[in-house]
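Supplementary notes (optional reading)

For those who missed the lab, this is the record we used. Protein: Peptidase C14 caspase domain-containing protein. Length: 552 residues.
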Amino acid sequence: MRKDDYSQEYIILEFALIIQDDSSEDDEDEIKRYAKAKLVISNEESVLQWWKKWSINYPTLDVLAGSLLITYILVGIMDRVSIVSLNVASRKRALLIGNKNYKRGKTLQYCTNNAQDLSVKLCAIHFQTTLGTDLNCDAMEAMIETFIKEICTGDLVFFFFSGYGAHWNDQNFLVPIDDNQITEPSMFNYQAVNAQDILKSIMNCSPSAAIFMLDACRSYPMHHITGWTGPLDFGGLVSMEAPKNSLVIFPCQANKTIADKSIDGQHSHFMTHVFEYIDQPNLPFNDALALICDDVMNTSNNEQSPFQVNALRKNLMLNSQNQSGIKHKLNLRVQQILNDAQNESMIDLGHQELSDRDVGAIIQEAIIKKRCSKLWLPGNKITLFGAANLSIALLHNTTLERLYLYGNRLTDKGVKYLAKALSMNNSALKVLNLQEIGVTDIGVEYLSEMLQKNTKLTVLCLSKNDISDIGLRIFANCLKRYNNTLQCLDLSENKRITDMSLDVIQEMIEHKRSLNELSIYDCNLSRMGKERLKKFIRAKKNINIFINNWAE
């Protein structure tokens, strides 16, 4: 295959992989956006030619899937600007306020860091930023008023506040540091800034779009109020409407509060994940927001779910970069590793800060050119979009036998793409490491369906994920009834696997077809449960079971 042909077939395969008769409407919407963002095919004729060629090689897709594929690609050809690339004449403008040192409220730890570091991020992607920290009421009002006056028609506007927020009479208020002036709830109208009024004033300037992000859902008690018989905690924000072409975001659901905690020691929990995606090149903001919300929920054990009201009419990108005719360049260190690698050998690209935008180049250099047999990609920043690209590479793969993806942020959606590719059973892959990537029982279902069809994979590592007794039961049913090739399954350090799985494990071992090694150490098995398993497997000479670093 010629190099200039590869990108065309690559994209067609990618869409066809995902658009199958079991795809949900949500999947199809996601694919439409993704297709338009990545489309490089130049004319309708080439699409039809490639589809005809592809359908002969991969007849498993039904006619409906094919028609959907052609429709989506042709829509992308005729609507190149569906994902907004902002007009160069318009500006990107941001106002960022972080209040930390309150006179009455408890001092907050991360709010000024949130605003300062977001300013740095947005400046790097060509926003004109205005930054304010520890502002009293007069200073806040003056800065906001000046910022709004400078907004021009067509500007992209980003407003951010980190500090205390409060609600009163179905209105949200951003609290300045001189909150000692707020002696009763009605004083919010005079000694705080009304959030709904700010958004309304911004939208009256006719921006192309406005992002209104309020990191202001902390508890805000007012015990000093005398004679008040209502609730004393005014913290949290009530639901807000988003005018046309705007997006409203809180770090948690409306009418909820969250603790002033951090997972990186520098920023609030929510903002830590915002910083991971906010400046990613050519990442549609809706997709970035979905990743942010997923990560917040995952790292809070589903206790914190961001609030959003999205009235954007087009899916904008904060960091739009023209990649037409430009080959993505890897960083020098990664490129040197690839240059030095021998053909059909192991390539180790672990912990290299690789992101989704690097995956295409990695596929081209490592899998296609070098035909590597082992590819290590642990500890990078690859998400479900990178997994989608890798899944297509697996369809073409005849040399890659081991793929290590542990420590990335693939989640169940990324696993779905990989599982679909491996279900076609065209790949030479034998070892797949998905340790600590955010897999739940949903991801296990995708992998189990894959194992019913795949006859090449022999080792599957899923340690340090969020798999429960239900997920183990799904695997057990698959391995005793359908799969004849998987030899090693690693489920260690999945803390939701308990003694409830003991009977399932024994049944799986008793009726296994090919499995000869099972790792379940550091799960949540009791001492009695472990002893029961040890006793059971002493008579089983053709399988190794690892329990708390003990092997039978």
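If you only remember one thing from this example: The two ends are 49 Å apart (CA to CA).
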